[in-house]
Amino acid sequence: MRAMYxxxxxxxxxxxxxxxxGYVDGNWQSYKPLAAKFPNALHASICVSASDSxxxxxxxxxxxxxxxxxxxxxxxRSAGNPYPVIYTDGANWAAVQAAxxxxxxxxxxxxxxxxxxxPASPPAIPAGALAIQYYDYGGYxxxxxxxxxxxxxxxxxxxxxPTSQEDDEMTTTSVAGRAGLSWAAGxxxxxxxxxxxxxxxxxxxxxxxxxSGPLVVPQWTFTxxxxxxxxxxxxxxxAACRGVILxxxxxxxxxxxxxxxx
Length: 262
Prior knowledge:
globular; Jelly Rolls
């Protein structure tokens, strides 16, 4: 996980984060000052109006509404941003998700706010979200972000192809902590993980590659031990899932996995 700071006044935002987010519209246009202040970090733009363009749309009271979010996301995709992000608080998240479902628009990536009283104990990024904003330091907010942000981070290495297109089960070997596997949309529903137990159980993160774009799954649980693990794709994503990107930060240096046909 990585730190991200955002604020309306670049002078109040300290160093130390991997990513800085700032506004391109509204009363406090901090994106350019933050990018200039921290040139070696990654920079994420935010807009508060659904009529404007940025990497992130701020959906909260006084800014864009849940009903406006799907149309904004569609326009961003048409304009060449395949990974639009919606920022909203935890209490409003369900309403935003319902708006995308009701309007028949593919879901975006989510940055969710859920504050804690002690910044030394940040919460986990909730399943289905890319990032969580968890503390207000007064002049800036702190967030935790997944290790891979599609569209903001450099693209991962090309997805390795299966050894045989005719095989019902496809296996590949991962390198450098990341691997990918692709298949025809809807053709697979289970990812089986194999690894060397001598290296310890790896901590894994899954990115589902859907027809509409990636869905980051920061945390997932599977039965580990004896060098095997199984992940069941969520039923609602099987039809649109064209593959996975699997990442790990600890444990064995060599991980193999395959996908079992439906």
